[in-house]
Design brief:
The protein is α/β, with parallel strands linked by helices. It is 28% helix and 32% strand. It has 6 helices and 10 strands. It has helices at 2-11, 25-32, 52-55, 81-90, 154-163, 184-197, and strands at 16-21, 41-46, 68-71, 75-77, 95-105, 109-114, 117-123, 126-138, 169-173, 178-180. Strands 3-8-5-9 form a 4-stranded mixed beta sheet. The longest helix has 14 residues, at 184-197.
């Protein structure tokens, strides 16, 4: 999965990668080493305990002002990373998040009630939401907001940024292939999709 993610980012010109590792870190480090075999540079953030997607970034020594693309390792996507970054920069966002439309059908008739009176009944309506797709861009100043050596997830960081009047967060809808392989059924689906998509 990590190889697929890295190859996809390489296609968009990215060459410097940092992998946050914890559980079975040695397997990942032994496979990728310094990245030279893959034509890239790889360094590692070694979590002593699980810190969460944002919390792991507290270990990062970011030495420039360039934005960072951060991605969950269990996400497979063909999102256009170049367009994502361009959208982030052109709109002067502090943080950006890839979002995916998610439809959920309620399996019952929904009854709308006003003061104990039925106003309307919708039979098995579909609700649509944007959900977090696990791919982000952060401006370098965001790293200062992340507490050290503490579990901290990405939604918490986005909420902190949203509270600051000088900052703004952007949503970038993903229309390309996207799947989170954190559940067995989705992993099986990704394996079926792999040859067609990647």
């Amino acid at each position: 999965i990590l190889e697929i993610v890295i190859e996809n980012l390489k296609e968009h010109g990215f060459s410097n990668f940092v992998l946050a590792v914890n559980y079975k870190a040695e397997i990942i480090e032994n496979h990728f080493k310094d990245g030279s075999e893959f034509g890239i540079q790889i360094s590692y953030l070694r979590e002593k305990e699980r810190l969460g997607t944002a919390g792991a970034l507290s270990l990062l020594e970011h030495k420039n002002d360039l934005p960072l693309i951060v991605m969950n390792a269990d996400v497979l996507t063909k999102v256009n990373f170049s367009q994502f970054l361009e959208n982030h920069i052109n709109n002067h966002f502090t943080t950006s998040m890839c979002v995916r439309k998610y439809d959920f059908q309620i399996p019952f008739g929904v009854v709308h009630v006003d003061d104990h009176r039925i106003v309307k009944i919708e039979e098995k309506p579909t609700q649509s939401y944007f959900v977090n797709a696990g791919v982000y861009i952060l401006n370098s100043e965001c790293l200062q907001l992340i507490p050290k050596q503490t579990f901290f997830d990405m939604p918490s960081l986005f909420n902190l940024v949203s509270e600051k009047s000088s900052s703004k967060s952007g949503a970038f809808p993903v229309h390309e292939y996207w799947i989170d392989v954190g559940r067995r059924d989705d992993l099986n689906q990704a394996q079926e999709d792999f040859k067609k998509v990647f």
